[in-house]
Design brief:
The chain has 466 residues and is of the alpha/beta class. 31% of the residues lie in helices and 23% in strands. It has 12 helices and 21 strands. The chain has helices at residues 68-83, 98-109, 115-139, 171-178, 204-216, 249-257, 265-273, 327-337, 366-380, 407-417, 441-451, 461-465, and strands spanning 41-42, 56-60, 88-92, 144-147, 154-156, 165-168, 182-186, 189-192, 197-199, 220-225, 246-247, 278-282, 290-292, 306-310, 313-322, 342-347, 354-362, 384-388, 391-397, 424-428, 431-437. The strands form 4 sheets. An 8-stranded mixed beta sheet has the order 4-7-3-2-10-12-13-11, with helices on both faces. A 5-stranded mixed beta sheet has the order 1-6-5-8-9. A 4-stranded antiparallel beta sheet has the order 14-19-21-20, with helices on both faces. A hairpin with a 2-residue loop joins β20 and β21. α5 runs parallel beside α7 and α6 runs antiparallel to α7. The two termini are 46 Å apart. Residues 1-5 and 10-39 have low confidence and may be disordered. Bound molecules: adenosine-5'-diphosphate (ADP), aspartic acid and magnesium ion (MG). Magnesium ion binds next to loops. Residues 61-62, 93-94, 99, 125, 187-188, 202-206 line the site of aspartic acid.
């Protein structure tokens, strides 16, 4: 595969070579609060942007390293970039379904395994990929070193299985690059400020890659996956889905946050804050992918850019909650303190002094939610609560929604025409989400994609609304 074909043209300013100075090697024993060195990039606080270099950070997802052939293909992609003169840092995910298999393994042992031990277990998948890829690169005649998240200087908070990156200490990576090594980093993991292994949540290798690109001032962060870029919807559900050449940061953030697996939302946030040029592309073809945040401001905005769906949400309903000041605050503060992320929340009108509240949350958090609500029931005096895993969320995202009224009405109409009942609705300036029955999700996504003419690119208002 030629270097010209895998073009890295991003319109980025001319680059300079990576700094020769090296900071102290990353260690596991320096808490984030102690970080003062100029070269440290603080992700969680007031950030310092690193000077742009010609380092390329690449990230390869699970399907890109699924078997020996895939790993050899990826080794070649990395070596090509190296031959073109780029120092390369490659972040890798666990192979194929490894992370799911590790989660299953834990479930066979325990119904509610300690989160710290889950992280010890889950972090192994990425280490396997990094070591194997280092071996493949050695075989191509290049020096390579694999590093765990901790060795790579990724410092996180202490929230096991959902940790957030606080700092990156890129000293050890810089030293290896200065020694002409290709650096492989195990994605999705770091070391906490209390020196425990942490993981960053599903899809977390995307965030590892973007954060490292920020810390190293990389010329570009390339997210290699099994599709050619960001599409108008999941191309596995709608074959007519169209690849987008560019997409704004805010739209990708909404797509990612509402279920488009192609990129983890936190990675998009870090890319935006640190101005990391982001290119999402396929590791199976050399075709250019989707560039993020590089839209042409002179262009008319699409009314809708994409449709997403999320299947791993569950709906929780609390019945007959006394309609008193502070009751909702108590419930949601307790859930937040337990690191439960909530999504859509609705409260019904009060009848006879009581009300029902429903919300959605990740299915994985259901055991925790049930425990917390069980504990609060006596104190708050609600009659019961139930949980429902058979829900899904479909979302329309589009910056053009700000200026085109009627998108929500059209969405509800399309769902109604297909006999799909809407159970919950939530909106922001550039997205509309509906919670529906899980069994209808494919029909909903296909119908919405067709109704908003997403396969066609830029369409007029008349074409969509008639
Ligand atoms: P990786 O293992 O490379 O991280 P993921 O499976 O996490 O890959 O994400 C890639 C998958 O995301 C694709 O295979 C595709 O099915 C899915 N996907 C969902 N929505 C979109 C979208 N809008 N554009 C592209 N891919 C999408
Ligand atoms: N292996 C982890 C997961 O499956 C992290 C990642 O792939 O980004 O979620
Ligand atoms: Mg992923």
């Amino acid at each position: 595969m030629g270097d010209e074909e895998r073009s890295r043209q991003s319109g980025a300013p001319p680059t300079e070579s990576v700094a020769a100075t090296v900071d102290a090697p990353a260690t596991v024993d320096a808490p984030a609060a102690d970080v003062t060195d100029e070269q440290y990039v603080v992700i969680g606080g007031p950030e310092r942007k690193a000077e742009r270099t010609n380092v390329v950070v690449m990230k390869f997802g699970g399907s890109s390293v699924a078997d020996a052939n895939c790993i050899k293909r990826v080794a070649n992609i990395i070596v090509e970039a190296r031959k073109a003169g780029h120092p390369v840092v490659a972040v890798v995910s666990a192979r194929g379904d490894t992370t799911d298999e590790l989660i299953e393994m834990a479930k066979e042992i325990s119904a509610d395994p300690p989160a710290r031990e889950m992280d010890m277990l889950l972090s192994t998948g990425e280490r396997i990929s990094a070591a194997l890829l280092a071996m493949a690169i050695h075989d191509l005649g290049y020096d390579a070193i694999s590093l765990t998240g901790s060795q790579a200087g990724i410092v996180t908070d202490t929230v096991h299985t959902k940790a957030k990156i606080l700092d990156i200490k890129p000293g050890r990576i810089r030293k290896a690059l200065d020694e002409n090594k290709i650096v492989l980093v195990a994605g999705f993991q770091g070391v906490s400020t209390t020196q425990d292994v942490t993981t960053l949540g599903r899809g977390g290798s995307d965030t590892t890659a973007v954060a490292l690109a920020a810390a190293l001032g990389a010329e570009v962060c390339e997210i290699y996956t099994d599709v050619e870029g960001v599409f108008t919807t999941d191309p596995r559900v709608v074959p007519e889905a169209r690849k987008l050449d560019t997409i704004s940061n805010e739209e990708l953030l909404e797509l990612a946050a509402s279920g488009a697996k192609v990129m983890m939302a936190r990675g998009v946030e870090v890319a935006r804050r640190f101005d990391v040029p982001l290119h999402i592309r396929s590791s199976f073809t050399s075709a250019p992918g989707t560039w993020i945040g590089q839209d042409d401001p002179s262009m008319e905005q699409a009314i809708v850019s994409g449709v997403t769906y999320a299947l791993d949400d569950a709906k929780v309903t609390i019945h007959d909650l006394p309609d008193k000041v502070g009751v909702a605050a108590k419930i949601f503060t307790t859930l937040a303190n337990a690191h439960v992320n909530l999504d859509v929340i609705i409260q019904n009108v009060s009848a006879g002094g009581t009300t029902d509240i429903s919300f959605t949350a990740s299915e994985d958090d259901l055991p925790k939610i049930s425990r917390i609500l069980g504990e609060l029931q006596g104190e708050l005096g609600f009659t019961s609560f139930d949980t429902d895993k058979e829900v899904a969320k479909v979302t329309l995202v589009g910056a053009g929604m700000k200026t085109y009224p009627g998108v929500a009405a059209k969405m509800f109409e399309v769902l109604a025409e297909n006999g799909i009942n809407i159970e919950m609705i939530s909106t922001s300036t550039i997205k509309i989400s509906c919670v529906i029955r899980k069994q209808h999700v494919e029909t909903a996504v296909k119908a919405l994609h067709a109704a908003f003419r997403l396969h066609k690119g830029m369409v007029s208002r008349e074409e969509v609304f008639g």
